[in-house]
# Entry
Amino acid sequence: MRTVLLSAAIFAALLAVWQGIADAGWISPILLPSPVDAVRFLAESVRDGILPSALAVTLRRLLIGYCLGLVMGLAMGLLLRHSRLAGGTLGLAALGLQTLPSVCWTPLALLWFGQTEQAMYFVIVMGSVWAVAIASENAIRSVPSGYVKVARVMGSRGAHTWRTVIFPAALPQLLAGAKLGWAFAWRSLMAAEIYVMIITSMGLGQLLHFGRELNAMDQVAGVMLVIVLVGLLADRLLFVPIERYLRRTRGT
# Structure
């Protein structure tokens, strides 16, 4: 409870500083709107149904793209750990492609898929799969070899060893990799929605882009607040409970 109150106090202080700068007039409101203006835009967009619709579209794209990237990344991580040839070839490619900003995939996505949902999913997957693959490979590699040796002495072999020894031991780091992949997928989707325009299915990225085009900085600031809030809620509601469960069941 104290942590929640402290976090709320810090955010309130940041908003107060933001409001103070806006009220002081040091920066033109065209460039920096006040928090009140941003919240007013959010309230109006909720009343008009624009924000709920855009949020639903964005979350749908994120969920599908992230699940694809997570499954592909886990499979690739297993392959990198199991095959020395794959580790020396695909592993090096994954390390290099992980450093590539996700926005760099959007021109290729537009050329291959055009202004379609497939282009969105392509950017999300390419932006997250490499981080998940590398984290998964490192998680499995970090499992102490003694665990596997003891399991084999007790008669465990093949899939049984993976299911009962390796995966449970690597689970905390696998969860960290999944969390990292979520962050990369979220950033990749925002980049994709800014450049891939699907008028019939506008997401938060499109609202951000249109706000910039119209010089509506209250819209830009409001959408940015929503993006930050969604990221925080995803961490608190999805990953933190799983991390607490793992710590509790493992006695840490």
Q: What stands out?
A: Residues 35-250 form a domain with the MetI-like fold fold (CATH 1.10.3720.10).
